[in-house]
Amino acid sequence: MSDRHVCTIYINATPEAVWEGLTDASFTSQYFHSTSIESTWEPGAEVTYLNPDRSVAVAGKIIEANHPSRLSFTWHVHYNPEAIKEAPSLVTFKLEAMEGATKLVVVHEDFPPDSVVYPQITSGWIAILSNLKTLLETGKAMAVS
What we know:
38% strand
């Protein structure tokens, strides 16, 4: 098993719009398993993805937030009883303007050996990012998330 997963997608939207899609609960609730993201986006601040019942799905700490080009935070899964025992990993979003669109690269790394989270994110991130892309480009999310 690797301890690093990289996912790249191109979105026909500005980096500012993609940043908003990543950091605004009104967007994440539409494409990210119905979770609402919350944070002040200051380094050291908490970041949480909250389920509709306000329980925590994922929690972490902001490492870096450079609007609209780079966002990095720790990732601690709470929705799985095995994963909650696992040390947090690190997710970084890199946004780059490219000819009127945005190249979005997600690097998710620092998984412990025998991680239960790693196999989930290897198929999960592309579905989530595809849904973000669809939402930003068409105004409507897909059923898959």
